[in-house]
Amino acid sequence: xxxxxxxxxxxxxxxxxxxxxxxxxxxxxxxxxxxxxxxxxxxxxxxxxxxxxxxxxxxxxxxxxxxxxxxxxxxxxxxxxxx
Length: 83
Known about the structure:
Blueprint: E1 2-6, H1 11-23, E2 27-31, H2 36-45, E3 54-56, E4 62-64, H3 68-82
Parallel strand pairs: 1-2
Antiparallel strand pairs: 1-3, 3-4
Domain Glutaredoxin: 2-57
Organism: Stackebrandtia nassauensis (strain DSM 44728 / CIP 108903 / NRRL B-16338 / NBRC 102104 / LLR-40K-21)
GO molecular function: electron transfer activity
């Protein structure tokens, strides 16, 4: 499962959520405006910026504003290394 750091107003986040829903990709959403620690994490992986969507993967890596293709490819790579 991936974690998507998001905000309520982020259109890029809404688009990626709907794409992951269509692809059947399980994810958890964390709103960085409601969770200061999540906001700190997002800033730590984005050069001090609160850029969303930021997605973290089971291997601990993160991507900022990824495409659905990038998410699928990363999940496949993580699954391959776990096997």
